[in-house]
Amino acid sequence: MPSSLDELPAHVRLETHATARDKAVATSNISPGSVVLEVPSMVVLLLSSSKGHRCDFCLCSRASEIRLARCAGCASYWYCGPQCQTLHWGLHKKFCKRLASFTASADFQCLEAHEQLDALLHTHLIAEISSNTPSDVRAKQLSTFTLEALFTRSGNNNFAIHSHLTTIAHGIFPLASRLFNHSVYVICRGQPVRMEIVALREIKAMEEICIPYVDPALIESRQQIFELTYGFSCTCPTCNFINTLGAIPSLPISEAALKELDNALQTFCIPPGDIDNQTLLAGSTLPDLPENLHPVLRESYLSRLTDAFSRSSHEGSYDVALDVGLTVLAVYFLIYPENYPQIGMHLLEMAKTAWNAVITIDHGNAQGAPTKTSLLKRARVYRDLASNILEVFGLEGDPAGPLEELAVLKKLLLEEEP
After folding, report:
1. Fewest 10 Å CB contacts: which of 2, 80, 186, 259?
2. 158 - beta bridge partners?
3. Where are the alpha helices (DSSP H) in 316-371?
4. Residue 251: burial class (beta carbons within 10 Å; 0-12, 13-18, 19+)
5. Across the beta sheet with 22-26, what order do the strands follow?
6. Is the pLDDT of residue 377 over 70?
7. Once rounded to an integer, what is the mean pLDDT over residues 326-330?
8. In what helix (H) or strand (E) does residue 187 lie, and over which residues does it extend?
């Protein structure tokens, strides 16, 4: 696993960029699902919501039959065993006794949540730099990145670490920040103490390799984030198109008008007819979006849809959930690039919802709902498409993830075949 610019794999090369400092270029074709690069973290910090549920060193979850022990010195860090606590002690001892007074101070308490996160990450970074027992990885990183660069660019080096696409921690990954500019064609797959850069589609030789700095769903706020956090204005194709739109039109107020907008979006993105793999993948791209559908690019539009999908699927209104879920899928096809994992995760939820609707029909509780045959077909289509995408993304996070759910659902659906 490379820790410095001198250890890059043969298929990645650093070249001069016209406007950015540098760019990473593929020296040979890279196939979808390939790990472009594994990058070690310099430091990691659990989110407050993960504290007490995961080991502060290796990030493993207590849900995996692991009992966590709390640090007696600060009562704020947990470990899955003596080995992790010992390995972390070289860093942790630098602030263990003073952590409680620091986080309780007026200066800390007046910070915004993201600023508190940055302050604690800086605390970890200072402790790591001043450690008396530097690791080989840390020593190589410090030989590549000056202390000034690590601090002044800490926002750029700060990446989310997730399990099953849910953020559990943040980490400082200087090498990833140094190598890759922003676009949306490669994904960072966060795992304990390392980042994997995974190709979502084929990357041609001599093509620049980029990573998404923010969720592509942040249509309205992404440029502000880029400018305030990363200090640049993005000119990738997606951002350029959004910039040409100017102000995104407001959403209609009435539920009837919103429903009409939903139906128009479905019609535009998903050709009419029976749902199958081909029709779902025949959607149009963002630059093709007609002006009357521009309001769907409001971030509040997607939030409204995902909330409605979650609510109706959990309440058992499966016919409503499947309809709303199809509109969510239409938005995802517009804003996310090919094989983006969020599309796969939503397709998995759609497949599970269709399966739950089948069970409802079997128990005679459905009135005016789609037929069992139709629901089984939908479940199979959604499951197969989800599998195609999530297998590109690969294993990630804790055990019993989405790939295991896909396998279970496949078995259930096979049992329903005549």
Report:
1. 259
2. 172
3. 318-335, 341-362
4. middle
5. 12-16, 22-26, 208-211, 181-182
6. yes
7. 93
8. strand 186-191
DSSP 100-152: HHHHHSHHHHTS-HHHHHHHHHHHHHHHHHT-SS--HHHHHHHHHS-HHHHHH
One-letter amino acid identity for 313?
S
Looking at the predicted structure, is the pLDDT value of residue 329 above 50?
yes
Cα–Cα distance, 351 to 356 (Å, whole number)? 9
Q: Is the pTM of this model over 0.90?
A: no
Cα separation, 182 vs 266, whole angstroms: 29
The 8-class DSSP code of residue 226 comes to: I
Per residue in 180-208, pLDDT (tens digit) is 764 444 444 544 467 888 899 999 999 98
The pair of structure tokens assigned to 206 is: 């001599």
Query: From CA 152, how far away is CA 209, in angstroms rounded?
Result: 24
Contacts of 158 (CB under 8 A, 6+ apart): 118, 121, 170, 171, 172
Q: CA 32, CA 197: separation in Å to the nearest integer? A: 11
Q: CA 25, 27, 31 angle in degrees (round to 5)?
A: 95
